[in-house]
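haha ok so turns out i had the wrong file open the whole time. this is the CORRECT one, sorry everyone. sequence first:
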Amino acid sequence: MPETVTKLAVKKEKAPESFGMEVWQPLDSLRQEIDRLFDDFGRGTWQPFRRSLFAAEPFWREPKWAAVPAIDVVERENAFELTAELPGMDERNIEVKVADGSLTIKGEKQEDREEKKKDYYLRERRFGSFERSFELPDGVDADKIEAAFKKGVLTVTLPKKPEAQKPAKNIEVKAA
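then structure:
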């Protein structure tokens, strides 16, 4: 059975004015108010909490670093290659864009599971998204960038321009 590789379109567009990557945290303002209250109450001698109890991530939320996939970057003779493991994702939910000298990879995952039995009902929903941006290295031919998705692994190939592929010239060091 031959394996299929799905090629993804690489979109070229103008980059937005800002790259706001802040995560919305609905309880953040409440945490700040509680911290302020304890700071006011504990001025001087007694400070019950040096560090907020709410500073740690809640048990039901993944840590922030887990929400963004690690991306391996390898430089080959004729191209750079970016590889990201995106298990459980579908190529329809992945977007690769080139704009103003940067490469942006976006993805969104949604999962909805429902289980009905005679004595219980279970419904779980999980969702999340990520976005990673990279500045294109000098010598990359932005018009020939390709992206492929196979078995949960995204591979983005950034081919080098012919002049960037020339081998380095060794210069002989002479004794003076």
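The chain has a mean pLDDT of 77.
again sry for the mixup
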